[in-house]
Amino acid sequence: MTLRSAFDVEVFFDGDCPLCVREIRMLQRMDRKRQRIRFTNIAAADFDPVTVGLSMKALMDRIHGRLPDGTLIEGVEVFRRLYTAVGLGPLVALTRLPLVRTVLDWGYRVFARERLRLTGRCVPNADGLCETPSHSR
Q1: pTM score, whole prediction
Q2: What backbone phi and psi angles, to 5 degrees, belong to 98?
Q3: Residue 137: what pLDDT?
Q4: What are the distances in angstroms from CA 9 to CA 18, 53, 103?
């Protein structure tokens, strides 16, 4: 008998990001029956990044996930795991094709770098880089 963990992937998402929350809500609806995803809002007042082993800045810079064995994943791989968990594995398989993988990885890096600016949450620091007050946690 194979024991299954309580979840397939935990996603650490920015609950203050309107675009991010829209996708998370869609995934929550899709996961309602399976309940294979653990959703953790890093913008919640009671969230402590120490529990993940990463800084708040690292968590804000790229999406991260955690597998049941504790392995951390980031970037597009998190989305692959999320969409596989809700039953879209065949579609996810296409994202692993070399050219598709390259384009998606590039696109996500651009989005992650510009996400605060795109969502109107950019506060330029002394270097002119975009930050949010939550980076200081």
Answers
A1: 0.85
A2: -50, -50
A3: 45
A4: 22, 16, 24
